[in-house]
Amino acid sequence: MTGREPVVAREPQGPPREVDATLFTYLLRHADDNLVLAQRLGEWISSGPELEEDIALTNVGIDFLGQARAIYTYAASVEGEGRTEDDLAMLRPEREFTNCLLVEQPNGDFAQTMARQLFFDAYQLSLWEALSRSDDVTLAGIAAKALKEARYHFRHSSMWVVRLGDGTEESHRRMQDGVDAMWRFTAELLTGDAVDAVMVDMGIGVAPATLAAPWRERIDEVFAAATLRVPEDPYQRMGGRTGFHTEHLGHLLSELQWMQRTYPGLEW
Amino acid sequence: MDAAHLPGSGVVIVGETSTTSPEIAAVRAVLEQVVDPEIPVLTIDDIGILRGVEFEGATVVVTITPTYSGCPAMDLIRDEVTAALGAAGYDAVEIRTVFSPAWTTDWMSPHAKRKLSEFGIAPPQPAGAERTPVLCPRCSATTTHIVSEFGSTACKALLVCDACGEPFDYFKEI
């Protein structure tokens, strides 16, 4: 509007340029997690098990979308190539998405959606708490806000998992099936790689392994109340952080990105 | 919190500004007309969305913060701030969105909470504390129960009064 340079420059003690590529990668992972899960929750609109829950899933979804926008916007400024949040969300192919596999899994029935949600909400509680103490003040600001929202998300998903798990024979069976189907995608949330290591060294990121104990404690507590058991099958799938996805992400992106792919640059 | 900014995005992450002058008071008076589109009894100042007003040269810089990260009303609020200031003769307006410090319902004044209650929305309790029984805004009964943590908007929960049977929104503490 005024054409002037921003009054406040990027964070004064910010990282030097050489770590920007790694920071960009790191930010995209978290933004992609949130965008993909927001899209999945949006699929429930008009199909929720009851009106209140339809609205709840949508509200949780827009929290994720808002958080994703803030992180993409920051990522775009770190990259410095002139891309925008929209370019990053709408114009990257599947192999460049680095969300965890858990969030791209289909909704299944409501119990499967809640199992996915519980595992992810419990993870984000610890993630945002840690990142709110990041030396990167921009990321810390986004995380501090997201943490407040994550508390409501976890309260919501854990309440449903307990209600369904400790409900009728039918609801218990479905809840356990949902847990069994989603469990194999949980280790990825809690496993770090070289990108995480660089971010930890820089004081920017958190080592995913340090989130494992509080995550498991939360899950065990909910499972106990819900009379659910931890699956015995040790098999775990990973690959999302390096762009190797399950067959589901491509279909999700084709719906998410269809408009911009078909009519490039289209605006409302 | 140190000052920080997302260049080229309009998203700024800074602390609050607290400059006061007759010029700024005049701008603030104009902004008193700008209400939250989803809760029209509250102004954006009442609710704590308005974080700062300052002049940079001839440009009015208005700083706002979203209630929730994904609040869909932010674009409309930006438009309405620009329109209200434009109608009052301020043509050079810049609106900045800040995420930090993160918005809290504790920024809502007692006056604002009273208006909220009169409008039929139970006002937020102190953030960070254990929630005590929410009073029904219609009959003031303390016997109410929660139906959903997520009501008509992200910032509200849906409750029902056990005494008068009325469903109502509760502005969640955060």
Jot down its keywords:
heterodimer; A: mainly alpha; Ferritin; B: 174 residues; alpha/beta; GMP Synthetase, Chain A, domain 3; five-stranded mixed beta sheet; four-stranded mixed beta sheet; 20% helix
Helix content of chain B: 10-25%
Cα-atom radius of gyration of chain B: 18 Å
Structural class of chain B: alpha/beta
Give the helix level of chain A as a range of percent: 55-70%
What fold name stands as the CATH topology of chain A? Ferritin
Strand content of chain B: 25-35%
For the biggest β-sheet of chain B, the strand order reads 1-2-7-6-5
Structural class of chain A, by secondary structure, is: mainly alpha
From the coordinates shown, what is the CATH architecture of the largest domain in chain B? 2-Layer Sandwich
Uncertain stretches of chain A: 1-13
Radius of gyration of chain A: 19 Å
Topology readout:
The complex is a heterodimer of chains A (268) and B (174).
Chain A: H1 20-42, H2 51-79, H3 85-90, H4 101-104, H5 110-131, H6 137-165, H7 169-182, H8 194-201, H9 212-226, H10 248-262
Chain B: E1 4-6, E2 11-13, H1 22-31, E3 35-36, E4 39-43, E5 50-56, E6 59-64, H2 74-87, E7 93-98, H3 110-119, E8 121-122, E9 144-148, E10 156-161, E11 167-171
Parallel strand pairs in B: 2-7, 6-7, 8-11
Antiparallel strand pairs in B: 1-2, 3-4, 5-6, 9-10, 10-11
